[in-house]
């Protein structure tokens, strides 16, 4: 398929051919769901922790005698039944990550790119370069109508452009190797440079 290429000032800059095997697929929600779940689980800290019976700070003395009180039999105040006592089978630090085949991860990225093409929210620009001035870039972004946009460049990101973009709310930029399903799907607009398209096609073939 062919898409028009524009410059950051909105002027036309020719067109580009996109491979149907990457940008022309019918998006599959099940694949996207699996990959996003894999990403978010791997990112989860898993540092939640509660105190067990042996970690609470009450005395270990038996609170009252075993028989003759007319009440239930108890040991110390650290028992889970008491307020401030230890938690029984509570969460402990662990990894929430799980494995996902490389083929499924690649499929997920292809379907994420295809979903942006299908929605009409994929924009191709010739290059992402700037002198590092936020005001000039912010004006261009506003004129282009990008509110929540992700820009994916080639193997490396232009330092000046990254510096200017870091001060603009809703605008993020990644190199090709940082492209991932979650970041693509959560943005309203996906912007690829020509170098980014070439690098993605080389990565996914």
User: Which CATH-level-2 architecture of the domain at 2-28 and 96-204?
Assistant: 3-Layer(aba) Sandwich
Q: Give the helix level as a range of percent.
A: 25-40%
CA-atom Rg in angstroms: 27 Å
Which sequence of strands runs across the widest sheet? 2-1-3-6-4-5
Task: List the defining traits of the structure above.
single chain, 205 residues, alpha/beta, Ribosomal Protein L4, Chain: A, six-stranded mixed β-sheet, elongated
What's the SSE blueprint?
Elements: E1 2-6, E2 12-17, H1 20-23, H2 29-43, H3 102-119, E3 122-125, H4 134-144, E4 149-152, H5 159-165, E5 171-174, H6 181-186, E6 189-193, H7 194-204
Parallel strand pairs: 1-3, 3-6, 4-5, 4-6
Antiparallel strand pairs: 1-2
Helix pairs in contact: 2-3, 4-5
Question: Can you describe what's shown?
Answer:
This protein has helices spanning 20-23, 29-43, 102-119, 134-144, 159-165, 181-186, 194-204, and strands spanning 2-6, 12-17, 122-125, 149-152, 171-174, 189-193. With 205 residues, it is α/β, with parallel strands linked by helices. It has a 6-stranded mixed β-sheet. Strand 4 (149-152), helix 5 (159-165) and strand 5 form a beta-alpha-beta unit. The protein starts with a strand and ends with a helix. The model has no long low-confidence stretch (mean pLDDT 94).
